[in-house]
Amino acid sequence: LSEKVQAIYLWWHKPVIDRELLQSLPNLKVIANSGVGMDHLDLKLIAGFGVKMANVPHAVSTSTVDTGMGLLLASARRLVESHRIALSPGVEYNEVDILGVEVTGATLGIIGMGRIGYKIALRAKAFEMNILYHNRTRRKEQEEHAVGATYCEKIDYLLQQADFVMVVVSLTPQTRNLIGKREMELMKPTATLINISRGAVIDQEALVTALQTGRIRAAALDVTYPEPLPRDHPLLKLKNVIITPHLGIKTDKTAYMITEEAVENILAALNGLPMPSEVLP
Amino acid sequence: MWYHKPDINEELLQSLPNLKVVASSGVGIDHVDLNLLSSYGVKLSNTPFVVSTDTADLGMALMLASSRRLVEGSHQMAVSHDTEYFPADWLGTDLSGATLGIVGMGTIGYKVAQRAKPFEMKILYHNRNQRNKEEESAVGAIYCKKIDDLLHQSDFVLLSVSLTPQTHKLIGKRELELMKPTATLINISRGLVVDQDALVEALQNKVIKAAALDVTYPEPLPRDHPLLKLKNVIITPHIGSATKKTRRLMMENMIESIQAGLTGLPIPNEVL
């Protein structure tokens, strides 16, 4: 059977692609990943076996964007906490427990203005948010203008001004622990941190401390390290944290589109044609 | 008057001979008997504009939370004691690209449409009056003279009407049955706009998919109410205007109205 395998469609990081597996599949030509992040794959190792790789950047972006906006709004308006209060056996509650912060007119700092970051800016504009962004490279003037976004060459400026900091980068050696103690201390005490990229982009221990001491107001995380977190992790106990189970791309439509995009790439690779979203090591 | 208290009735009005003005917090005045007040020569004000943005924001928050199962995902999965892994087949539905039907296209409804537009939602609306062409095209909204047309086509039905005798139980068994079985009902207006018993039945029998309610009748619901037990329902404790800044602005508006009422000047935000 292993002689026959020419393609692998990787669903949620399984199977694990290691040397042993690659050696056992001599006719493997392509691995297509069911997401955009490739940080779980050893790209050089795979390329070394002459196997091509693809991700699915188009299929995932809209759902991930909506997750980011959903988490921003849910955190700002304390939706999860309020729902708990609405259902709780005691009906008395303090107004102070349900007051949130405004989204319309607030300042949003987007760290990582790629495809996903830009679509977030498009939505945030309709909420009349003041948009700052930090990115490896600056976007074209027309693109900035279309969403009213201001480039921050230094991340510090963005962190100091933003009411909401949304992290939308891919995980690379450069972005590991991108947001740590130093960055959180630059943030406003009334600010909210939202992470829809990878858990390892944020220094989780520093985040726990920052949330416990009120260094920042709140956090909303669709991703953590690991996933799921150990059940006794302090992040699970903090009232000012929303954690969702990496549901960024988990919709029926997107699951379908991901598979379509992956299959397109697989077929192209098997037919020796250019792949729509090939990932090079 | 904060959150409908105190209750303005004959007894109270008779006991306060020098009462000149009642300033009500929020925009809704369905809890006040206007005729009764004016028969005692007492003026009434509300705070209509300052609450609209936060309420529209909350409408969007509820739509996103419901469609992507954010509350369920966080409570039952991410932070639950029993979770060992996140199941691969647990899915929500996309908000982007879906059809939104706004029932009540006043200030709040229109702001929801503005926010929904970049999500590439198809926007339908039903209102007493059609909005003008510029307003419609600015948000890409299509008028549905018959509410039935809106209900048939919408993936999300958002209620942003004021409560009047005409809108009481506007959404009942008939309307719920016209909705898609994959549709979600969002209510940011008043609990009484929906026939709550019919809603419970519709949710239990999967006539509609889900509901997200910032308002119920009464508020809060009795602790054994079926709505509190349904997995496909999000309930929030009437937090439409619950941000620090807006609450402060509401109070400032109310004080302005009271001061004007006491000095015999024209009252800002007077309700006639």
TrEMBL record, chain A:
Pfam families: 2-Hacid_dh, 2-Hacid_dh_C. Belongs to the D-isomer specific 2-hydroxyacid dehydrogenase family. Coiled coil: none annotated. Signal peptide: none annotated. GO terms for molecular function: glyoxylate reductase (NADPH) activity; hydroxypyruvate reductase [NAD(P)H] activity; NAD binding. Transmembrane segments: none annotated. This is Glyoxylate reductase/hydroxypyruvate reductase. Residues 10-279 form the D-isomer specific 2-hydroxyacid dehydrogenase catalytic domain. Residues 69-248 form the D-isomer specific 2-hydroxyacid dehydrogenase NAD-binding domain. InterPro entries: D-isomer_2-hydroxyacid_DH, D-isomer_2_OHA_DH_cat_dom, D-isomer_DH_CS1, D-isomer_DH_NAD-bd, NAD(P)-bd_dom_sf. GO terms for cellular component: cytosol. Keywords: Oxidoreductase. PANTHER family: 2-HYDROXYACID DEHYDROGENASE-RELATED (PTHR10996), GRHPR REDUCTASE (PTHR10996:SF288).
TrEMBL record, chain B:
The keyword Oxidoreductase applies. CDD domains: GDH (cd05301). The keyword Oxidoreductase applies. Gene3D superfamilies: NAD(P)-binding Rossmann-like Domain (3.40.50.720). Residues 2-271 form the D-isomer specific 2-hydroxyacid dehydrogenase catalytic domain. One of its GO terms (molecular function) is NAD binding. InterPro entries: D-isomer_2-hydroxyacid_DH (IPR050223), D-isomer_2_OHA_DH_cat_dom (IPR006139), D-isomer_DH_NAD-bd (IPR006140), NAD(P)-bd_dom_sf (IPR036291). Belongs to the D-isomer specific 2-hydroxyacid dehydrogenase family. This is Glyoxylate reductase/hydroxypyruvate reductase. It comes from Turnix velox (Little buttonquail). The gene is Grhpr_2.
